[in-house]
Automatic annotation (TrEMBL):
It comes from Rhizoctonia solani. Keywords: Signal. Residues 140-166 are annotated as: Disordered. This is Uncharacterized protein. Residues 1-18 form the signal peptide.
Amino acid sequence: MWKFLLSMPTPMFMTAIASITVPVPTPAGKLVLLVNANLSVTGPLMHTWVVRVGEKRLKEEGMEAFNKFDQEISGVDAALRLLGSTMQLFGSSVGVLHAIYRLRKSLMRLQFHVRENAARLYEGFIEPSEKREIQDIKPDMKANGHINPPRSWKAPAVPKNSNEAKEKRYQDIHGSMDQVGDNLERFMERINEISGFHDELINQTFAAFSGELKHRAAVLRRLKYRPNTAFKERINKLSVVFGQHLEGMREALKSFQKNSIPVIQLSQERRGLGLQGLSAVATFFSGINATAIQYQLNEPPTLLRSAVNGLLITSLACSAASAVSAQVVYFCTYISPWLKDAQVTITIICTGRISKFSSPSKYTPGFIAHILQYTPLIYLCVHLRFHVHGWIISLHIQ
C-alpha cells in the first residue's frame, strides 16, 4: 500500500490536503485514483460528486425561482383584489371591476400552469395545485362583488391517452400567456378611463409585462417545443423574468392605491357636490315661488295678476325641472355599448357622476354630455328670468 497527500476540492470549492491510501498498481491493473503533478484528484468518483453538487445547486435555484414567482403573482392578485374593493365606491368603475376580475382569473391560470410544470420538474419538493381542472381556476369573488357558489363535486373525466392530456396541458400555457397579455392591456384601458389621467407607472409596468408574455408565447408556439424536461426547465427559467415584471406591477398597484385613489375620489366628490349644490339652489327657489303664488292667488283676479301668476307658475316649473334634472344627471340611465366586453345581456348603465355603473366620457356622445351638463343650469336661468319678471309686474301693480 502507498500513501499519498492529495489536494482535493471541498464542497465550498476550496483546496484541502487529504491523506488517502490507494492500492499499489499491478502491471496488468489500473490505478483507482490518478495523481497528477499538481497533486489534484481526478477520476470517476470526483466527476460524479461534482455532477451531483451541480445538479443540486441547479435544482435549488429552480425551486427558488418558482417560489419567487409564486410569491409575486400572489402579491399582485392581493393588490388587484384590494383595488377592486376600493373601486366599487367610485363612478364608472364597473368596467374596471370586470377588467380586474378577468385579469385575476388569467393570472391564476398562468400560476396554475407554472406550478404544474414545477411540480413535475421538481417532484416531491413542490406541491401541485389543489384544483386539477383549469376551468375551476377563478377568483372566489365575481366582478359584481358577489361570492361564487361552491360547485357540486363531479368526478373529472379520465382522458383516454394520458400522454395527450399532459401535452395538451402544457401547450395551454401559450394561450394562458396570451390571455394575460390581453387582459393587462384591457385593464390599462379601463383604469385610464376611470382615473381621468394616465398613471405612468401603471402603464409602463403593465405594458412591459404584456409585451413580454406575448413575445414568449409567440416564440414557444413557433418553435413547437415538446413537453419534455428541457421544455419544463425553460418554462421554469421564464418564471424568473415573469417574477421581476410582477414585482414591478405590485409596486405600481401599491403606489396607485396610495397616491392616485385619493385624487380620483376628490375629483368625483367635487363633481357630485356641484350637482347637489345646484339642485339645492333650485329647490330653494321653488319654495319661494310656491309661497309667492299662494299670496297672489288670494288677490282679486285681473289681467296683470293673471300674467304674474302665469310667470310665477312657469318659474316654479323651471326651478323644479332644474332640481330634477340635476338629480337625473347624478343618477340616470341610458343604453351604452361599452359593456360588450363584459359579455352580459343587459347593457343599461348609469351616466351619473358617482355611480359605479356610470359611462366614461369616452363612450358618451358629445351632445349628450353637454345636454346633461348644462340642462340644470339652463332651467335655473329660465326660472330666474320668469321669477324676476313676475315680481317686477307685481310691484308695478301695487
